[in-house]
Amino acid sequence: MSTFSPARLYALGVGGVLVVAGIVGFLYNGSFSVDPVERDAVFGILEVNGWHNVVHLATGGLGLALAGVAARAYALTLGAVYTLVFVLGLIVGDGGNLLGLIPINTEDNVLHLLLGLLGLAAGLLSPRVGARQPARA
After folding, report:
1. Which of 10, 30, 27, 25 is CA-nearest to residue 78?
2. The predicted structure's pLDDT at residue 132
């Protein structure tokens, strides 16, 4: 895989941002309460709690870990997952909770859609590992 493939840039960039978002999220709300689900808005925009922060840390850390060895798979998988999370977010609605644990709002849904589409595009635009490259004349 090329050092600068779209998938690798996605894994490093999105992975890094998600790790930072998870850390910053704990500064706003680190509660794991589920009845009721506690929530606070980072910068007054994105809803978070302890569960949401852990998801960001885990998915971001995974991206950083896989950037050099499985960036394409990470981009495609995370892209599909975040696109699914966007659809689920539309179903539960603004101010709802995914799986009864993770608070979301419209702004979260927009971000999830962007991350999902960007991941799918980065994965599809990157060559598969071991794929034959055209011979140069």
Report:
1. 10
2. 57
